[in-house]
Amino acid sequence: MNNPYLPLPMRLEKNFIETEDKNIRTFTLTFVNKEDEEKFQYMPGQFAEVCVYGKGEAPFGIASSPTEPGKLVFSVMKVGKVTTALHDMPEGTLLGVRGPLGNYYPLEEIEGKDLVIVGGGFAYTTLRSTIAYILNEKNRARFGKLTVIYGARNPGLFLYKDEIAEWQKRDDIEFITTIDREVPGWTGRVGFIPAVTEQVAPSSENSYAIVCGPPVMIKFTLPVLEKLGFPPERIVNSLENRMKCGIGMCGRCNVGNKFVCKDGPVFTLAQLQKLPGEY
Ligand SMILES: Cc1cc2nc3c(=O)[nH]c(=O)nc-3n(C[C@H](O)[C@H](O)[C@H](O)COP(=O)(O)OP(=O)(O)OC[C@H]3O[C@@H](n4cnc5c(N)ncnc54)[C@H](O)[C@@H]3O)c2cc1C
Ligand code: FES
């Protein structure tokens, strides 16, 4: 039996500054062993524990898509011990990865329907994975209209800016960006994500919404989606509770009787409404 605590060896191929404030870096990792790569089958919304030898491990959403084989991508904000060690890590360094962990966005259910993705801050990582997955030429026809509303405090804080600019040129996705306050040269929208979601007013008919971002953004966006007619069963969130083992063994991440690491991190609003409000 495979030991779930044993990390797979991976090599840091690329470590680059993602945001203008230099607080978020994006890491591209490649598998050292081909058989590990074949075994690591994941879906958008899942996460992995990244182990920095001698420092510890931390959970991060997988930003790459299963349609982009051969690598895993993570975008990481520098906040403490593991994330600082990662930021300082030279390319070529070996590190470990445990995963894929948790459940994923219900893409089988969303198939044949429209999808609205609402994201803020660095929680955009697994949303990026979802968009890349749907836009892949093998998958695009399986899904209906795709609308993305992605907000950041200022233009320098968006992740994957070049890719967004490319996606905004496509006619099979409506990609709306918004910032909190007007700045010279900005051509996207200005306003907080909940307000912009209300202005864009995506149709809730035959449609799902995936919402990911800081708690305050989620708090004010959920009522807007409900007002637009999205039922709680078709509003999907991802939680980022503190975690340790990531596999339902240690009890660090519990909300009520659910392990966020194993039963989640993806939950519908209908599921969250049945849990104690401690998430
Ligand atoms: C499922 C999941 C997906 C995540 N995806 C990403 C991602 O894509 N990119 C990213 O940058 N981060 C992500 N995080 C958060 C990330 O795991 C933490 O920032 C990381 O564990 C901090 O490790 P550290 O050793 O650097 O910090 P520590 O030295 O352990 O702590 C530094 C500070 O960060 C706080 N902190 C630690 N963990 C969390 C947390 N989960 N939430 C809020 N505050 C925390 C601590 O209280 C402390 O104040 C995710 C978390 C989860 C559970
Ligand atoms: S992190 Fe250990 S049970 Fe969820």
UniProtKB/TrEMBL annotation:
Biological process, per Gene Ontology: pyrimidine nucleotide biosynthetic process
Note on how the cofactor is bound: Binds 1 [2Fe-2S] cluster per subunit.
Superkingdom to which the source organism belongs: Bacteria
Chain positions recorded as [2Fe-2S] cluster binding sites: C245, C250, C253, C261
UniProt key word Iron: yes
GO molecular function: 2 iron, 2 sulfur cluster binding; flavin adenine dinucleotide binding; metal ion binding; oxidoreductase activity
CDD domains on file: sulfite_reductase_like
Domain FAD-binding FR-type: 5-107
Entry keywords, A to Z: 2Fe-2S, Electron transport, FAD, Flavoprotein, Iron, Iron-sulfur, Metal-binding, Transport
Protein's name in the database: Oxidoreductase FAD/NAD(P)-binding domain protein
Species this protein is from: Desulfofarcimen acetoxidans (strain ATCC 49208 / DSM 771 / KCTC 5769 / VKM B-1644 / 5575) (Desulfotomaculum acetoxidans)
Lineage: Bacteria, Bacillati, Bacillota, Clostridia, Eubacteriales
